[in-house]
Design a protein that fits this description.
two-stranded antiparallel ribbon; alpha/beta; 27% helix; globular; 10 helices; TIM Barrel; single chain; disordered N terminus
């Protein structure tokens, strides 16, 4: 259990402050745990001088910088027509993120199960009121592979959750007609090694996938020391893998969520290919004051169109500068309107 505590401690702030690419990732603090010392990234929102703005037409300072010398992004993206059973764009997904073994990794584990599901239902209801024209699909987004401060037996610095934990979370989702996402923080492993072991879950029609570049340590760094990265080649490999599962099992399309709050977290985004069997969401994963979150959405999501967009809200970290949490109405004012909403 000490190893698991180490893993969950590292990933407690598993999504960093929204920031400009000019900012250097903060150096991690060190937290001492029983029998183990593990790095825990200490992150704070960088100081911004810009006044709060909206993201309409990409009109923020970060969005404007991201667009210098580039054509104006075109939304909605020209993409394959949705196949039967597609969730997006006909519905909006509202998800609770985290891990049941930790109160520090997100709403999914912070509250007792029944209270957590009731809170999720309240958020779903709020989104229905804010946008009655778009049905809401509830979801539980489980971190199924957790980056950690200890190398583990194989030196990969990641901990795979047990089948029993995944099945338990899946049963919770089924109770509320929710879908489930399995999210992986590969650390010094690879997405090519971590996704296939989850194939038996991906073969279910209501299980989808998330990949977190922050903890993809391609340069060999320990997770938590710096922000990691994925390339379009990694994303395309995942798309091909999921698409084959969809075809082989005669499933409706999968949703693929890719976290992002810096430019380097996802390189060559314009080379991500679109396949109607896999619906790609670029998810703005940073925390901070409203203006900073809008700037990051403009710079790292709006400015580099892929297909669909997401936006994360942090019940605690977003309030560190005094809050309040952004509302559904405010998020519906973004361009494009996010179709995947995650609460941590």
């Amino acid at each position: 259990m000490a190893l698991l505590i180490s893993a969950i401690n590292l990933s407690a702030s598993s999504s960093g402050a929204a920031q400009d690419t000019s900012k250097v990732a903060p150096k991690p603090a060190t937290t001492t745990l029983p029998g183990k010392t593990s790095p825990s990234p200490k992150k704070s929102a960088p100081v911004r001088k810009s006044k709060p703005t909206t993201v309409a037409e990409g009109a923020t300072s970060a969005g404007a910088r991201a667009l210098e010398g580039k054509p104006t992004p075109v939304w909605p993206v020209v993409a394959p027509a949705p196949l039967p059973g597609s969730i997006l764009p006909g519905k909006r997904i509202v998800a609770y993120y985290g891990n049941p073994l930790s109160k520090r990794m997100g709403a999914l584990g912070e509250y007792p199960k029944d209270e957590m599901l009731a809170k999720l239902a309240q958020e779903v209801a709020a989104w229905k009121r804010a946008d009655p024209a778009t049905p809401v699909q509830p979801a539980l987004h489980l971190i199924a592979v957790v980056a950690q401060g200890d190398s583990g037996r194989d030196g990969k610095f990641r901990l795979r959750m047990t089948d029993s934990l995944i099945e338990r979370t899946y049963r919770w989702a089924q109770e509320k007609n929710a879908i489930m996402f399995l999210d992986v923080q590969v650390a010094k492993s690879t997405i090519q090694d971590e996704l296939p072991r989850l194939d038996r879950y991906m073969a279910r029609p209501d299980v989808h996938f998330g990949m977190d570049p922050e903890f993809s340590m391609k340069d060999g760094s320990k997770p938590g020391k710096k922000i990691g990265t994925y390339d379009a080649a990694d994303v395309n490999w995942v798309i091909d893998h999921l698409a084959k599962i969809v075809t082989d099992n005669k499933l409706p399309p999968k949703v693929l969520v890719i976290h992002r709050f810096t430019r380097k977290m996802l390189t060559n985004a314009d080379k991500i290919k679109l396949d109607p069997r896999v619906q790609v969401v670029i998810h703005m994963d940073g925390w901070g004051p409203h203006s900073l979150k809008r700037d990051s959405y403009a710079a790292y999501v709006y400015a580099e169109p892929v297909q669909f967009t997401g936006f994360k809200l942090f019940y605690k970290n977003d309030l560190k500068k005094g809050g309040p949490l952004m509302t559904p109405t405010q998020l519906l004012g973004l361009t494009p309107k996010p179709l995947y909403i995650q609460y941590q």
